[in-house]
Amino acid sequence: MENQQNLELNEQAIDALKTSAKWSMFLAIMGFIGIGLMIIAAAIMLMVASAIPASPMNPIGNLKGYLSGFYLFMALLYFPPVYYLFKYATDMKTALQNYSSDLVGTALNYLKTHHKYLGISIIAIMSLYVITILGVLVFVVNKGMQNV
Question: Which of 17, 37, 38, 97 could bond to 75 as cystine, CB 3.0-4.6 Å?
Answer without folding.
Answer: 38
